[in-house]
Input
Amino acid sequence: MADDRPLNRDGDPLPPCVVLAGPTAAGKTALAMALAESLPCRLISVDSAQVYRGMDIGTAKLTADEQARFPHDLIDIRDPEHAYSAADFVADAQRSIAAARGGGRLPVLVGGTTMYFKALRYGLDSLPAADAGLRSRLEAEAGTVGWPAMHDRLKAVDPDAARRIRPTDPQRIVRALEIHELTGRRPSSLWTGRGRDRMRNSLMIVLTPADRSRLHERIDRRWTGILDAGFLQEVESLLRRPQLDPDGPVLRAVGYRQAVQRLRGEFGDEELVRRGAAATRRLAKRQLTALRQWAGGRWYDPLNPATIDRIIQRTGRFAESLGMQ
Output
């Protein structure tokens, strides 16, 4: 019989930070740059796609000039052939936070990858490391039988995990089946939920338009010029990398999956823009759902003209309380 007792997790508190979270296209980057102009900050990106080199246009990454003026840690730190995990992020972010505090600067975590924020704030479950050989075998099986059948297999070994993972989420299906084969335990028994809050002394800012339709307008505007900016050429360049799986997790990022389908001839440019914008709106909805579950978040509307000044003032008082002004 499988041992379903939860495993321990690390609950050591982190130094006080500022968190700038929110859905995609909410204006987080502009706010981070405004803070960096006003306060002694070290900006730390929390974006699961911007970690990869060569994924610039589709991730709305800072331009080279912006990055030179407002450098962000954890951007362009990994080639896309090599997956980057929440555990990698937690380790890297903790080093950046320590370096910021050691240099007398305020750590400002800015981004929209709520899974990374959750892992940093509440800790990680003690799960086995990925097994490349096993994962390749599971993905090959999925190519033969299809992802719905793989989801049915997960349902047979762990109904709780299957309820929490969508049949259309191949990355999480593979990971759950991988955990089961490596440990002999139900994956859901190892997902122990939230640990102790490691960021209880931090300032949590959530940025999103009060009117959801305005957020959708911003997302649509982002997609309007994406083809003229060279997005398809960017994806073609990625597809020429011999070790990068076009159906792997990196190119399943929002926008990139649709661009790969476009380049395979499944639809045209107008449909790519429509599908990409729709997928981005769905991502924003998931981000907002996750952020509403946060404790202690201060919500601001970026379309309110007074918002940036209010946040800068609030962050300045927070920095003063830490002796950093």
Observations:
- The domain at 18-124+199-321 is CATH 3.40.50.300 (Rossmann fold).
- The first helix runs from residue 28 to 38.
